Amino acid sequence: MSESKSSSSVLENPADARVLKVAILGFGTVGASVARILCDVQPRGLELTHIFNRNVARKRVDWLSCPVMWSEDAEQVLHSDAGIIVELAGGLDPAGKWIRTALEAGKSVVTANKKLIAAHGVELEQLAASRGGQLLYGAAVAGGIPVIPGLRQGLAGDKCNRIEGILNGTCNFILSKMEAGAEFAEALQEAQRLGFAEADPTEDVAGYDARAKLTILSRIALGAEIEFEQVPAGSIVPIGAIDFAYARELKCTIRQISRAQLSSESSGAGTGIPRVQATVGPMLVPEASPFAWSRGTENMVIVTGKYGGDTVFSGHGAGGHPTAVAVVSDLMAMAHGSRAVAVASQRATVTGDLSLRHYIRFIVKDRPGIVAEIAGGLARQGINIGALLQRPGYPEDRLPFVVTVEPCSTSALKRALDEVGKLDCLIEAPLQLQILEPESPIG
Amino acid sequence: MSESKSSSSVLENPADARVLKVAILGFGTVGASVARILCDVQPRGLELTHIFNRNVARKRVDWLSCPVMWSEDAEQVLHSDAGIIVELAGGLDPAGKWIRTALEAGKSVVTANKKLIAAHGVELEQLAASRGGQLLYGAAVAGGIPVIPGLRQGLAGDKCNRIEGILNGTCNFILSKMEAGAEFAEALQEAQRLGFAEADPTEDVAGYDARAKLTILSRIALGAEIEFEQVPAGSIVPIGAIDFAYARELKCTIRQISRAQLSSESSGAGTGIPRVQATVGPMLVPEASPFAWSRGTENMVIVTGKYGGDTVFSGHGAGGHPTAVAVVSDLMAMAHGSRAVAVASQRATVTGDLSLRHYIRFIVKDRPGIVAEIAGGLARQGINIGALLQRPGYPEDRLPFVVTVEPCSTSALKRALDEVGKLDCLIEAPLQLQILEPESPIG
Fold first, then answer.
1. Is there a contact between B157 and B277 (Cβ–Cβ < 8 Å)?
2. Is B107 considered catalytic here?
3. Chain B CA closest to residue A343
4. For A132-181, where are the alpha helices, taking DSSP H only?
5. What is the pLDDT of residue A269?
6. Rounded (5°) CA angle B389-B392-B398
7. Model ipTM?
């Protein structure tokens, strides 16, 4: 074995000898972690030169190993000699404007901005390619877990037809706390105290954050460009401790799952436009599923390929340091002249309609005949009951019980529950959750 | 969203417009899978043009979608106009000679040859870089699981200090069958019948295959070039059903684990040469560890980084199709002009000495005083017993019992067992296994 640094030959290539100047826009938790890793790892070919933040004075740190220009003028930084802009401000605006300005000037951009990439990724990648720059966003999905590079570099040779994941660490923290016995409100408060949830947790708990990430993965893994607003998103707020108790009886637990799979049917006769079955929301997952192992703020992604079968990625999906690892890895890929494998993608339509077993939890004021009425309502939509579960020890005027139904389409179930929901005995609207099968059918 | 193929812009770049001709050397299971995927996926910029195999006539297939030159003359193919050589013959020779010839001619090479890359990877990468070609070997470790691309593209920005994995699907198949109740011989026979194990299974069961893969990962993840012969490899052959029974009492199971971590001590005072603690062999793993979830021929790798924490990759580590996915992904990376991020590496020394809890299983002819004598032998090396387990129902003249010991160095334990092993009551040499802690210390 050689004693020399074996990689030196690559950087001796004249094309790589230049040093790329890096500007960070947004010096919050992730931005500071990026700067810290750049100072610690000192990747060759990269130099941190500019940091932008509003009211930058309060952000200044004294541990940087190189001189940096601190600025509160984004335009000044965008028009500086920095060759790579790291956008960490988040949101659609002004981040989108900054990224367009940088790409139009031929600069490259690294971002963790899932919302922007979900909404405008295709257009921004085209802009980057047309001006000779690159746009990388490995940090936008699953933080430090290399799902995007893994898909682009390591699974590009497969035909991926399904992607499923735990893409939101906040929901996973709350649901795994609830699995261990907490009620929703209590778990949310703890997440907020630990900095894992915002004061307004809507983006996370309602599934909006996860569906932006699913939209990005749909394009990279399935080659299907979907509109994130079309993906049905279910909230985890209605999930109660009672649902974990019933899930356990079914040898399951509950996780927020994001899934997208290519449908065997195209979007309309002869259109050739692919259709993607996609949903985000709380789901029953079997205890034997890898998803059940995922606890705390972890993320997990399972990619199913025609040739490679299932590949699982898991790890820290959020937090300053893990997210910064993904950002710095993208920067290093740029510095080494690496080019991401561009996966061909095309516009696709979305349906949330999947034929799956479902879990339905009712809360009723007990009286004779309720089960018959509910079963009748389901039967009229052709839906068969699989199991009926009723745990003892609850008051008759607020009695929870659960029905599981054989595989049926989400839309047929919705029609049935619209009818059943009118029954006078119901105290709350029924809660329905999809049940993730160990081997869900594709197509 | 655009209706156009969003990646087309990349291939409109004139540098990418050329088509790379691909030659496959070795048309066995993996080679045929590579050809099949190339025909199915039809990645742009790649064209299969040559297939070499000894006695090629018996290998010919009729389903290729493009005209191919079949050859049984490797030199002819190596000197053809193919720009990329896919080496799937395996072994050090003549594969090494072929790869050198191709790289010297400025061609690029994709290989799944773990043995060759473990032994000569550094030298061959330097050769590739010096002649303007590339050498990629994503398929050499963990088959279809994108561990190497994930490390190079997605985790390059972290400082990785440990890598642990289930790297041999044959051992994992055998051990997970034994966990379910089979004896070793029976599990091995089933693996052989299913094509998961060779007629001579030594490479797999003795850990030689896994340590070649660990050697490759050590360089990419830890930047440490180690000699694979220096990594202590333990065999799974002595593991019996009894060990799974005792492991279960300790809330553990048994897996073949390969691990390498950077030691806080360098190889010698002032040398600055890093030291790597590395071992391969059967190990007790807690039931709560992701490794315990891995069953059948699956592979799993856990990378621990200073900033990103633990990242888990798992999936199909072997088999024609998954391995071929990794090969085709490497080919696509070449066709798209992607360049792997070269991680700086340097020569490192290996120690198998780790301070860990250990499991020791004795089989004795029972008589009074045995435990006192064993405990005495351990105590003389400063080793404390943690637990003593003896399951009922075994004959007194062939009595198995188990001792677990508090964290001690592997070398001190070896000295103690050399002494204890001389006791006249022992029917077999004691079996010692490291116990993988949920949070093993690093350093």
1. no
2. no
3. B7
4. 147-149, 169-179
5. 63
6. 90
7. 0.91
